[in-house]
Every structure is written in C-alpha cells, then in structure tokens.
Write a sequence for this structure.
C-alpha cells in the first residue's frame, strides 16, 4: 500500500500546482506558492517538502561563510540528495537562473543564521513542509557582522595564544566517516602547512601511506585524489579533543559523534587561534608509540565513561584507558538492572548487555534523559544522557516528565458524524481537525519555552493513548503527531473529559490535564437563554467574549420576539480556527423571521460565523457591528446612529478580508457605514443545498446614511444566467449617501471575464442622492457574452468633490452614465464608457476589483492619477459625447495602429462580421486548455481524497494543504464547466 500512497500523494501535489496557477490566462486565484519579501532583497522565495530550500541572491549565496541552525554550525555537503541532517548544500539550477541553499530535516521554529564576511542574515522556519514557503517573513533580519565595532582582519596576527575573529569552519570543507577511519577534507593551503596533530594532549605521528589502522597515526592527503586535500585518521572516540597546528595557526575541536559526519564536531568546540614559534611544542618531544592505548590509566585519574552509538552497536567505554570486563559489577539503565548475554546483537531494544570480541561493553541504545548507573571497580558512577553525551549525575537526580493538553475542543452535536471535520462526497471537505495540541517537559518548574511538542517519535514515552471519560458517548479520541483529534459518531449529550496517558522511560505512568468536550442536542438550546454572562469569558477591560456553544443555534426563543445582544459582549466566536464556523439561524431564501438586535452601548464583533437567511440583524441607536471572517446570508439593517464595519481591524486600523455578504445590507436614516471591504458571494456560496440566483444590490439605501473612511463594495460576479451581474449599491427615492471629507466610496458592479453574461451596474439611483466632500468611484461589471453594466444608472443627483465613473466592457459595452436623468452638481472628474475588448486588452480591466481583498494599491493609484489629471474638469449631467476608452492606460507596449481584433470570445471583429481564422484557433486552444485543466484537477481531487480516506496518519502533516487543494481544484472545475457550457462544448 505504501507505493499506492506515494503515487497518490505525487498526483495530489502535482494537482496543487494546477489548483494555484492561471490556466491559459483564463482562471486564476490568489496563489501564495511564492512568498515575496519586500523588506529585503536577499531571499526571493522558499519551498518545503522532503528538502527545505531558500532561493537567494546569487552574490550573497556564493559569499556565505557560515551556516548555523539554532546556533549549531552546519557543514557544507557536495551531495544534492543527502538525507543527513546538520548539512547544507548550495544548489544551482541547470538554467543558471535560480540559486538556493538546501537543508534536510529542518523543524518549525528553527532559527537559521547565514553569515558572510560582512553580513549576518537570520530567519525562523514557520512550516518546513509548506507549499507556500517555509519562512516566517516577520522574522527576517539582517545586520552587519561588525555592528559593535570594526572587525579585525582575519589575516592580521593576533596576540599569541589568543583566538582571533576568524571563522574556524571555513577551514573544514567536509567530514567523511567510515567503520574504521575518519577523513576531514580541509582548506588546501592549511593541509599543506600542517606541522603537528595532537589528540587528548598526545602527539600523533604522520604516516607516509594512506592505509590507517592504528590509533596514534594520521595521513596528510595533499591533493592525491579528486576529493581534495584532507587528513585521514583512525576512528575517533566520542569526547576526543583534536588540535591541528601549522606554523601560525592552531585549529581545535571536540568529537561529538564519531560515526555521523553531520554531528561529528561538538557544538561550539570548533575554534582557531594564532600562535607563534614560542608557543609551539618542542619538536623533540616524545611521541606516543602507534597502536598503543592513549591517555592515562584509570589509576592515574578518576574514572569516567563515554557512550558511542553507531548503526551496528552502542558501547560504553572508559574516557581514558581500556575497559576491563572483570571490574564491571552492575549496570542499570533507567532504573532497570541489565543482565548479561553472550551476543552484542541481542542487546538492541532489550535490557541486556554483552561484551564484543574486542572487549567492548555493548548495551541498548540510549535516548534523551535516559539514566545510566555503572558500578565499576567497587565504585558507582551515575549519568544522564543529554545532548548526545553522558552528563554526570552525582546526586542521582530523577527526571520527572509532565504532559499537558493545550487548547480546547469545538463543541459537538448529538448525531454529528465525521467529527474530525472530514466528510466524503465529491466536494464536501471541511478543514476542521477539532483537536488540541500535546506538549511535554522534563523541567520541574517549566517556562513557556520548555514545553515541547510530543509527536510520539522520541524515546521518552511508550504506550501513549488518548482517553475519554465515557466511551459510550460515541466519541473516539486519537493521539497522533502531537495532538489529540476526535473521531466517531456522537450519540450522547453531556460534557466529557479527555486526557492523555503515557509511560515514560523509567516506567512511570504520566497523566495529562483534562480538557472538556461539550456535546449538545440540536434545537434544544435557545439563543435567548445562551446569551448570558455565565456563558461568557470576561477580559481585562471588563467586557466579555462568547465561544459559541453549541456551535449551531437554530432557535431564538419561544415568543418570536427580538433577541438583544448584551452590551458588554464584545466578541462572538463561532470557533478559533480559520474556515471553521459557528452557525446561527437556518437556511432559507425567504424573508428573515428571526431578529438579533445590536443596540445602544453594544459593540459586537462576529468571528468565524455563518449567519443564515432566517436571521435579520438590526444595528441601531449607536450600536456597532463588526464582521470578521464571517458570512451573512440574511439581512443587516442599520439605522439611527448604528454603525457597521466589514473586514476592518480596529486594532491596527487596517482593512482585511474573509467576511462576505451573501444577503443584503439596508441603510436607513442615521446609518453609518464605516471602513469596510464588502464583497458578495451570493450566487457562489450556497446555504447548504440552497443555491441563489440573486441580482439584488449588495447595499440598499432607504434613508440618509453616511460613509466614514474608505469603503469598497463589489457585487458577485458568479454566473447569473439571464440575470444581470449583482449591482453594488442602490439608493431609493428617500435615500441619500453622504461621503464625508477624506472618505471614499468605491462601487464595483458584478461581472468579470467569462463568468457573467450581463454586467452589473455599479450604482443605481432611484430618485436618490450621492453627496458630500469625498470621492466616488463607480466601475461597472463586464458582460462578456451580452452587455456590460453601467457605471451609474437610473434617476438622481450626484454632488461630490470628485468622481470616477466607467461603464463595463462587453459585446455590447455599457455606459458610464446609463441615463440622461443623472444630474451632477459641481463634481469634478471623468466618465468613461465601456468598450468591446480586443486581443490586446488585459482579461481584467486595470481599474477593476477582482479578488477578495480590497482593490490592489496599483488599481487605486491609477484611478487617483486619472482623477488628478481631470481635477478641474466638471462632469456633465448627460452621457459624454466623446468616448474615452483608455483613461487608465494598460501596461506594456502601445496598441498597433489600424484595425484591432476583438477578443476571441466574440468571434467578430470590431470593424465588421468577417470571421478571423486566427480567432478560431485561439478559441480551440482555449477550450482544450479548459478541458485539460478539468481532467488534471479531477485527478488531483481523487488522489488527495484517496490519501485522506485511506492513509490519514501518513498525510497528517499535510492534511490541511490537501483539503485546500481539493477546494481550489473544485472551484476551477466548476468555473471551467460553466464556461464550456456557454461555449456549447458540454450540455447543462
């Protein structure tokens, strides 16, 4: 099955590319596969997966002298496919245009430091598996190496015996380990100038040949093979101190792991210092005899032990001298007495020890915090294994582990199935793991940073399992990859406790704290009874927040009256996870029958909520409503000093995205529309199985309302069949919108590319007025198959300081002013009629808002530039006689002179009805690309769902990305189908 999973994952990940790219210039969405770091020019992008790569500026990459992760020096490797940690590889693509530094095994939170001679570049790893980049952009920093003062010249002679500022790692290029020898590849000039080498204070002898078998010998390779200069030694032991001397340099380090090139050198031990002749040892000094045991005898100094690990055996040795089997009296690991067996291979994973033919003491592998007690020659020695070495534990300190669960479970409903959030079917996938994280520590009084993720991969715990207080509830808690998630079919109402149990390496049972899981019966709880302070959490400012429980409330009360939001309630959370929603009301396309009031003194933010069509929200008498990452299918009615903000963060004064209006906002007398980015998904986002075909305006004005700050409104441009694209704003006969000074109102009618047959009007006046000293922008939607929308239509008056009004493009272009009954009073700016697009035009006009976030800065800047050029030009009270088709000039080269071809979709030229064969070719290519996109995205969906259903544990680290892949792929398939239907390529 593993091969099937691997194949499916490859297909799914290849589909991710399709789901995030523009297909044939037709379909696109906001792709974040490449991160742009605007604050610096070193890092261009980054990618995750099996290897972690950071693409960088070529000059900087080639000048890197030192690479550290969590302050541990990494060594450069020449192998591009090395699966060893603590190495880095400088990667150059074959076309020579992309340069990157490549790692293997980076973890979230790792701190990476890249140093040249002059610059230190630092950043943190956010997601080592991330499709959209692995680096947290907020952690990137750069500072000069000599920030505290002038950096000494590396070549400048330092005082004898003192370390200079030289980077010692530059002398070591690569370390090669084998069963019997170690070769250190070094700087050529350095190797050729080596005069002596000492290990543990004893001078070793240079051998003329490369065959090394005994300790005490080394061989200098001065370029004898293709791998370059280096020094070859007999196998080192853990803890060996090596000093290599030239005439004027002394390079030293301590051996940490003699079997692993990546962790060969102990962290922080690699140093270089300048020396002079007077500090050199006496050349006539005595050398050790090759082949003899090095170091003092146990009788000369207190005995100590070292631990060495390799794929073949794990051994305990004396740090100096030979281990004598007869002197071993007792061996205890993690409190368990070890018993002797004859074969070293039988010690793996067992509480046994054995002696090899060479007399080495072989034991089971040690892990972090394992304890070791050796009684040798009548004396007891105690150690803790930490940092890949034995650390003395004279006081026999015990390690006491703690485990805690962090977070809370989302509430559940009786009868709820697939409670981990994954459901089958062609398009029904929800990103709701409903889990809490699991952390552990070995500290007695832990700080926040002492808690580590318990992923189950380490050697600290066994028998890890999640437990629930009542197994009859139908809920099955499961531990996996550092979290507890919920599965099963819920069949019982109540509050159930969930915790984790594990056995540590010492055999002690560890039990975590307990987290409640609340289960409710749908329809039993009424909103009126739930909105009480006993259910809220109080914050430092005295206000309250409510974590909505149950997560779905369909009943308001028994009386049918309004329900009022408590004045002190400032935040209403459907959940604390993105794309996981609480639900209020029930699905309907009829007029709302339930009313929620945000009244005097109330200032409420909805976060992660779906408010269905049965609900009308009234904001009045100075109350304030904020929508954050929520969707409203019903109505919001604002009046008498009430204020609404959509997608606005008051804490940093920035406009965001995530909240949408799929119903309607109604502004009555005294209404205030504050800083907002309002976009509609009314025909795209359904209420369960209810699908809308709505062309009513996003906002309707029935009284005198005011705009404060920047407000952006865009109608839905999903397919509306014979209906118009959704208008942005309608002002009725008694309606008036005042745009305050330094305020702006941007209106965009629905309609873009091939999604809408008839473009929506940006602004409809039904006897209403637009007034004030602010700015009005009204851009109509496109109607590719039939007609573009009008910038402004109907009857009414516009008297603002400045206005930018444009009709929508289409086969039959829309007008800037769709009527001669639209009057202007001292308004400066410009009006632009729509046009029939040509093959030279961009698919989306440069002044249109086509994503979810507010219009891009470049769009706003172009509109402002056009307004500045026409700041003294009054707008006429009737449609302009002369069409201004290009006030916002597209980027790139100018259009060729002469007749221009229309967009291939229309099939006829602007100048007549003659068919152009090149247009037919373009259309056929376009259709083929759409069909190919559909097929490839279907494969991606099938592969991703196969993994989610059949290999949930294996894909747990990338689960969220697979779910997002399916969502994006489904969107592309649906859009492609709609276009192909309109082109007659497939049947309805």
């Amino acid at each position: 099955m593993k091969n099937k999973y691997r194949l499916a994952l490859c297909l799914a990940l290849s589909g991710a590319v399709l789901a995030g790219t523009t297909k044939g210039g037709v379909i696109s969405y906001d792709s974040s596969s490449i991160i742009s770091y605007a604050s610096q020019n070193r890092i261009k992008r980054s990618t995750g997966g099996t290897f972690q790569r950071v693409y960088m500026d070529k000059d900087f990459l080639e000048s890197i002298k030192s690479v550290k992760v969590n302050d541990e020096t990494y060594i450069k490797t020449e192998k591009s496919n090395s699966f060893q940690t603590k190495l880095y590889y400088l990667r150059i693509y074959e076309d020579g245009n992309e340069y990157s530094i490549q790692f293997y095994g980076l973890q979230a939170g790792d701190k990476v430091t890249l140093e040249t001679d002059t610059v230190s570049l630092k950043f943190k790893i956010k997601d080592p598996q991330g499709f959209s980049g692995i680096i947290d952009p907020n952690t990137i920093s750069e500072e000069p190496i000599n920030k505290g003062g002038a950096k000494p010249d590396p070549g400048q002679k330092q005082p004898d015996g003192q370390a200079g500022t030289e980077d010692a790692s530059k002398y070591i290029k690569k370390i090669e380990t084998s069963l019997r020898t170690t070769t250190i590849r070094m700087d050529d000039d350095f190797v050729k100038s080596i005069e002596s080498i000492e290990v543990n204070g004893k001078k070793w002898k240079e051998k003329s040949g490369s065959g090394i078998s005994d300790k005490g010998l080394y061989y200098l390779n001065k370029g004898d093979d293709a791998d370059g200069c280096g020094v070859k030694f007999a196998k080192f032991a853990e803890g060996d101190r090596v000093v290599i001397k030239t005439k004027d340099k002394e390079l030293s380090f301590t051996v940490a792991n003699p079997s692993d090139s990546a962790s060969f050198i102990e962290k922080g031990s690699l140093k270089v210092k300048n020396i002079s002749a007077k500090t050199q040892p006496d050349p006539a000094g005595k050398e050790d005899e090759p082949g003899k045991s090095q170091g003092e005898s146990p009788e000369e100094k207190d005995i100590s032990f070292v631990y060495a690990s390799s794929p073949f055996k794990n051994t305990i040795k004396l740090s100096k001298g030979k281990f004598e089997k007869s002197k071993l009296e007792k061996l205890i690991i993690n409190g368990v007495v070890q018993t002797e067996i004859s074969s070293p291979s039988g010690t793996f994973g067992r509480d046994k020890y054995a002696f090899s033919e060479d007399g080495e003491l072989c034991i089971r592998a040690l892990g972090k915090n394992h304890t070791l007690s050796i009684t040798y020659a009548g004396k007891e020695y105690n150690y803790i294994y930490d940092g890949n070495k034995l650390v003395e534990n004279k006081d026999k300190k015990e390690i006491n582990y703690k485990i805690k669960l962090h977070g809370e479970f989302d509430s559940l409903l009786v009868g709820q199935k697939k409670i981990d959030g994954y459901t089958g079917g062609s398009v029904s996938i929800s990103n709701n793991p409903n889990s809490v994280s699991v952390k552990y520590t070995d500290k007695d009084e832990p700080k926040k940073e002492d808690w580590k993720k318990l992923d189950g991969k380490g050697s600290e715990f066994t028998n890890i399992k999640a437990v629930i207080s009542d197994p009859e509830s139908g809920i099955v808690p499961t531990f996996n990859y550092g979290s507890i998630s919920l599965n099963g079919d819920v069949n019982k109402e109540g509050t159930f406790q969930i915790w984790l149990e594990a056995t540590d390496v010492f055999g002690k049972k560890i039990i975590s704290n307990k987290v409640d899981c609340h289960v409710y019966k749908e329809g039993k709880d009424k909103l009126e009874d739930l909105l009480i302070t006993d259910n809220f959490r109080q914050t430092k400012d005295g206000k309250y927040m409510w974590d909505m429980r149950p997560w779905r409330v369909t009943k308001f009360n028994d009386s049918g009256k309004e329900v009022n939001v408590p004045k002190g309630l400032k935040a209403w959370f459907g959940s604390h996870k993105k794309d996981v929603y609480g639900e209020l009301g029930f699905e309907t396309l009829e007029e709302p029958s339930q009313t929620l009031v945000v009244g005097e003194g109330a200032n409420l933010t909805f976060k992660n909520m779906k408010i269905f069509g049965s609900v009308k929200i009234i904001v009045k008498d100075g109350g304030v409503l904020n929508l954050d990452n929520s969707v409203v299918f019903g109505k919001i009615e604002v009046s008498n000093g009430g204020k609404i903000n959509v997608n606005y963060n008051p804490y940093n004064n920035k406009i965001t995205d995530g909240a949408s209006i799929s119903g309607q906002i109604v502004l009555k007398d005294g209404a205030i529309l504050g800083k907002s980015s309002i976009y509609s998904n009314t025909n795209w986002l359904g209420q369960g199985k209810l699908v809308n075909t709505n062309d009513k305006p996003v906002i309707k004005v029935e009284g005198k309302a005011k705009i404060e700050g920047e407000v952006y409104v865009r109608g839905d441009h999903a397919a509306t069949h014979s209906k118009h694209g959704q208008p942005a704003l309608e002002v009725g006969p008694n309606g008036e919108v005042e745009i305050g000074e330094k305020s702006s109102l941007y209106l965009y009618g629905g309609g873009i590319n091939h999604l809408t047959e008839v473009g929506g009007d940006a602004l409809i006046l039904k006897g209403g007025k637009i007034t004030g000293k602010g700015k009005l922008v009204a851009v109509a939607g496109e109607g590719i198959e039939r007609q573009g929308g009008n910038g402004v239509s109907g009857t009414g008056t516009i008297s603002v300081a400045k206005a930018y009004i444009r009709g929508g493009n289409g086969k039959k272009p829309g007008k800037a002013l769709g009527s001669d009954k639209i009057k202007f009073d001292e308004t400066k700016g410009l009006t632009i009629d729509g046009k029939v697009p040509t093959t030279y035009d961009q698919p989306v006009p440069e002044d249109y808002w086509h994503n979810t976030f507010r219009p891009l800065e470049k769009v706003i800047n172009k509109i402002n530039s056009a307004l500045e050029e026409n700041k003294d030009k009054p707008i006429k009270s009737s449609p302009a006689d002369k069409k201004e088709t290009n006030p916002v000039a597209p980027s790139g080269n100018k259009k060729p002179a002469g007749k221009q071809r229309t967009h291939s979709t229309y099939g006829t030229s602007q100048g007549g009805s003659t068919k152009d064969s090149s247009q037919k070719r373009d259309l056929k290519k376009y259709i083929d690309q759409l069909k190919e996109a559909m097929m490839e995205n279907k494969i991606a969906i099938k592969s991703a769902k196969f993994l989610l259903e059949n290999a949930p544990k294996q894909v747990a680290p990338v689960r969220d990305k697979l779910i997002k892949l399916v969502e994006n792929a489904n969107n592309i398939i649906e859009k492609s189908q709609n276009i192909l239907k309109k082109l007659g390529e497939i049947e309805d």
Q: What stands out?
A: Residues 693-892 form one domain.
